[in-house]
Amino acid sequence: MINELRDVFFMYQPKYHDNNIFGYEALLRANVDNEMKFPIKLLEKFGDDLLFDFFIINSVITDIVNSRKTDFKEKPVSINISAKFISVPIDLDKIDISAIENHNLKIELEILESSKIIDIDICNENILLLKSIGITVSIDDFGSDYSTIRRLISVKNINYVKLDQRLIADIEHDPSIVPSIGILFDFIHSLDFKIIAEGVENKNILETLRSIGIEYFQGFYFSKPLLMDSAIHELPLRFLL
């Protein structure tokens, strides 16, 4: 596996709250035929291998520790993990806990394809276990299917619920659903979960989401994913005027 993952690296996309960066998401990329691409073939091959999840987590931790920018050590960095990873007992010995503790890192795991969680009880136990070592857990892709509400009620101690980009597109293209979606978001907030909207690409959808209570955002309207140390992560000038 290691040889096949030697060309893997991460881009980091900032997340915003009140026009301030409050964290980053680590996005997996790879050099494929001398081009930067999302490594679909690697995910198809290793996506069900728990060692791949551990590899991703520890690689991002190493990135942060080696970064020249203190911002990545001071703000939460989220890492995508599989639903299978959170559904079976987690071996903490395979996570670089010493680096997290020594550098006081703020690591967050985002559960991808949460509809595939196979054991809610083990999932909840894992969330508490991870929380005990300072790692928070959030749910990605909310709104990608109709079973998501049931999972929200069942899964405990979640930090953020990230809206699926298809739901964002539906809100943008069909304004008539906004009042109903607002009621749904009120319900999510009543569970004491924060909501982050991913895929925000223009001012109109940003203002619509703010009007129904969304306060946390991520998307190209704010910033594209950037290499950790080769680019400046800051709020675009239009937000400062």
Characterise this structure.
It is built from ten helices and nine strands. The C terminus is likely disordered.
What labels describe this entry?
globular, 241 residues, 37% helix
Query: How do the strands line up in the largest sheet?
Result: 1-2-4-5-6-7-8-9
Q: What percentage of residues falls in helices of 4 or more residues?
A: 25-40%
How far apart the termini lie comes to: 48 Å
Beta-strand fraction estimate: 15-25%
Spell out the helices and strands N to C: EEEHHHEHHEHEHEHHEHE
Q: What is the radius of gyration? A: 18 Å
Structural class by SSE content? alpha/beta
The strand count comes to 9
Shape: globular
Q: Catalogue the unreliable spans.
A: 235-241
What topology emerges from the helices and strands here?
Blueprint: E1 8-17, E2 20-32, E3 35-37, H1 40-46, H2 50-66, H3 71-74, E4 77-81, H4 83-87, H5 97-102, E5 107-111, H6 120-132, E6 136-142, H7 148-154, E7 160-163, H8 165-173, H9 178-190, E8 194-198, H10 203-211, E9 216-218
Parallel strand pairs: 2-4, 4-5, 5-6, 6-7, 7-8, 8-9
Antiparallel strand pairs: 1-2, 1-9, 2-3
Structure at a glance:
This protein is of the alpha/beta class. It contains ten helices and nine strands. 29% of the residues are buried.
